[in-house]
Amino acid sequence: MVHRSAGTNAFEFVTVAALRAAQLMRGCRALVPEYEKSVLTAQAEVAAGKVQALPRADSLSKTGR
């Protein structure tokens, strides 16, 4: 199991890791040393900060950007 940092939102961590795992299973290259399972590799990538969620469109409109 890969541990996320204390300041990371658990829901965002799981969601981003799941989407990244799907990319890895489709053949994308890993950004960190690979684990046996793509889910663990994806979690390691998110925990290392190699993969991040994009800001949501509705949050951008609220900030005036």
Brief rundown of the structure:
The protein has 65 residues and is an all-alpha fold. The chain is 51% helix and 0% strand.
Strand-helix topology:
Elements: H1 10-25, H2 38-47, H3 57-63
Helix pairs in contact: 1-2
Model description:
It is a single chain. With 65 residues, the chain is mostly helical. It has one domain (1-51): Eukaryotic RPB6 RNA polymerase subunit. Helices cover 51% and strands 0% of the residues. It is built from three helices and no strands. The chain has helices spanning 10-25, 38-47, 57-63. Helix 1 (10-25) packs across helix 2. The protein is globular, with a radius of gyration of 13 Å. The mean pLDDT is 88.
List keywords for this structure.
mainly alpha; 65 residues; Eukaryotic RPB6 RNA polymerase subunit
Q: How many separate domains?
A: 1
**Range of helix content:** 40-55%
Strand content: under 5%
CATH topology: Eukaryotic RPB6 RNA polymerase subunit
Number of strands: 0
User: What's the total helix number?
Assistant: 3
Mean residue pLDDT: 88
What kind of oligomer do you see?
Answer: single chain
Uncertain spans, ≥5 residues at pLDDT below 50? none
Distance between the terminal alpha carbons, to the nearest Å?
37 Å
User: Based on CA inertia axes, which overall geometry fits?
Assistant: globular
- Highest CATH level, the class: Alpha Beta
The CATH architecture is: Alpha-Beta Complex
Order of helices and strands: HHH
Question: Could you give a short account of the major beta sheet?
Answer: none
Radius of gyration: 13 Å
Which structural class do the helices and strands define?
Answer: mainly alpha
